[in-house]
Amino acid sequence: MKKFFIAAACVILTLFCFPSSACTEKENDNLGLFVFLSVRMKGNGDGTLTAVAKNEFALGSAPMPITLTLYYSANHDGLTNMTETETVSSEGLEIFETAEINYEIQSEGFYCAQISYFVKGEEKFLRSAVIGYDKQGNRTE
Description:
By secondary structure, the chain is mainly beta. It has one domain (about 25-135): Immunoglobulin-like, CATH 2.60.40.2150. It is built from one helix and nine strands; from the N terminus they run H-E-E-E-E-E-E-E-E-E. Strands 4, 5, 7, 8 and 9 form a five-stranded antiparallel β-sheet that branches. A hairpin with a 2-residue loop joins strand 7 (about 110-120) and strand 8. It is globular. The termini are far apart.
């Protein structure tokens, strides 16, 4: 019975995605069958902010190339009015690997992390929420 519940949990994890995550199924593609990506931000309370992209799970997959970008705005106007602060690219995230941006906060404002990746030649995007941080790296909302 225990094996059944473990198998059922694995199936559920592969079928459902959580906020700020992307499930990509690929057919006849050199990247494999399934990749589960996530993006998140964390204020560190020491004047820095960390943005993280992670390959949470992959099924029959080669490393997933991604670009992680951190955006900033003084106002909460949405991503279209935000300025790119820093970008890092990865040739390919293996399962459970991460790409990170450690950013020294210049001024209080709103930040958003975004990853871009390609599926069947089409560029896709995955964004975190837009979150306010003070100069020390503490959430303001």
